[in-house]
Amino acid sequence: SYMWVYRSNVYDPKAAVIYEYQKTRKADHPREFLAGFTGFLVTDGYEVYHKLARERDGEIRIARCWVHLKRKYTDAVKAMGKAGADTAAGTLAGQGIEKIREIFHEDNKLNELDAESRLERRKEEILPLVDGFFVWVKKHRDDVTRRSVTGKAFTYTIEQEVYLRMFLENGEVPMDNNAAERANRPFC
């Protein structure tokens, strides 16, 4: 069985968390729950959300979680074993982690701003870092085999680029869905 977790915007001081128990992961469940909803969903990589966005033709927009992206690079470092962990900074996966950390670090400085100011500062300060990250990924894409863990991280990054950039279009959209993930822990 499954617990679907829906959480209001992380920047909203009056956070709401709704737990919906279901026996399956069928698209019918979020389809029914989100009937009438318009806006952004910050999600993991579960395809059901994309299906809903396609069905709702622009009413729902998907933003991808950068923490889930970072895990792809962390997994690549872990796959290298102790030697890889000791030399992570010198690896492409380690460099990817650092680039993502830098983006998070700079975006976290904007947490106390209102949505409009946050968006303006993101366009000025964060967008160049994000652009640089994607240029770097595409530059190094062919430096590793596509079946390697790092290669899979690069492929995921490129495939999810549009959705990873969504936080740059709306100051209410966070870079990650950690608030929903944390809301799930007490239940578990």
Describe this protein's structure.
- There is one protein chain.
- With 188 residues, the chain is mainly α.
- The chain contains nine helices and four strands.
- It has helices at 28-33, 47-56, 66-79, 81-86, 92-108, 115-140, 149-159, 161-164, 178-187; strands spanning 2-7, 17-22, 39-43, 60-64.
- α2 (47-56) links the parallel β3 (39-43) and β4 (60-64).
- α3 runs antiparallel to α5 (92-108) and α3 runs antiparallel to α7.
- It is globular and about 45 Å long.
Rg on CA atoms, Å: 17 Å
Kindly, what is the distance between the CA atoms of the first and last residues, rounded to a whole number of angstroms? 12 Å
Strand order of the largest sheet: 1-2
Order of H and E elements? EEHEHEHHHHHHH
| Strand residue content | 5-15%
What percent of residues adopt helix (DSSP H or I)? 55-70%
Number of strands: 4
Structural class: mainly alpha
Question: What spatial form do the alpha-carbon principal axes imply?
Answer: globular
Please summarize the sheet with the most strands: 2 strands, antiparallel
| Nearest-integer average pLDDT | 90
Number of helices: 9
Low-confidence stretches: none
